[in-house]
Amino acid sequence: MRGSKDFYTFRGYSLHSSQHPDSLTPSMEDYLEMIYRLSAEEGYTRVLEVAQALHVQPPSASRMIQRLAEADFLVYEKYSIIRLTPRGEEIGRFLLRRHNTLESFLRFLGVGEVLEDAEKIEHNISSPALQAVEKLLAFFARHPDCRAAWEEFRSGKEPWP
Q1: Where do runs of H (alpha helix) occur along 10-157?
Q2: What distance in Å separates the CA atoms of residue 101 and residue 128, rounded to the nearest whole number?
Q3: How many CA atoms, within 13 angstroms, populate the side-chain half-sphere of residue 26?
Q4: Region of poorest pLDDT, from 58-62, 147-151, 154-158
Q5: pLDDT for 96 beyond 80
Q6: CB within 10 Å: which end of the chain, N or C, has fewer?
Q7: Residue 74 CB: number of other CB atoms within 10 A?
Q8: What H or E segment, with its residue span, contains residue 74?
Q9: How far is it, in rounded angstroms, from Cα 58 to Cα 102?
């Protein structure tokens, strides 16, 4: 085969990268990130708050929360509060940072509404790619002249090659 690179389908890449036993589904990541957000102030949240924040029915939220509790990401007793375990808190912090980084990157690129795109990208971006995005954002934060040049170019009418 020409090029001899290891190409996969989208599903193939997903299967290839999810061999780690701690692999979370995108839905699990969404719940953990939201629980982290909601419990940041008081140290806990409730099923109804999570369901409302994610626009899902409380029974669906309850089932996912039970799965996350079984996987030791949080502590939950039926009809009670939800608290993240240290492991859940660490992953929740990472998930929120990843989300915020991607939103910042998309805003930097000039994308108007960034939430949907950030949600879609965050479940598929590799750690090295995320680190590269963070470095790029840090570079432009340290070099306002370069950022200004980028913003001028971005807003111009020049056709892209």
Answers
A1: 10-17, 26-39, 47-54, 58-70, 86-109, 115-122, 127-142, 144-155
A2: 13
A3: 10
A4: 154-158
A5: yes
A6: C
A7: 26
A8: strand 74-76
A9: 29
Would you call 32 exposed, middle or buried from its count of C-beta atoms within 10 A (0-12, 13-18, 19+)?
buried
Q: Give CB contacts under 8 A, 24+ apart, made by 57-66.
A: 61/31, 64/27, 64/28, 64/31, 65/31, 65/35
Task: Report the predicted TM-score, pTM, of the whole model to 2 decimal places.
Answer: 0.84
Q: Which two tokens stand for residue 73?
A: 């990401």
Structure tokens at 149: 């040049």
Closest residue by Cα to residue 36 from 97, 78, 106: 97
Residue 128, token pair as written in the block: 């090295």
Q: Summarize the confidence of residues 68-74 as an average pLDDT.
A: 96
- A 10 A CB-CB count for 70 gives 10
Cβ partners under 8 Å of residue 129, min gap 6:
none
Tokens 């990130």 -> residue: 33
Question: Above 90 in pLDDT, residue 122?
Answer: yes
pLDDT at 50 over 70: yes
pLDDT class of 21 with cuts at 50, 70, 90: very low
Whole-number mean pLDDT of the chain?
Answer: 89
Place of tokens 């599903």: 11
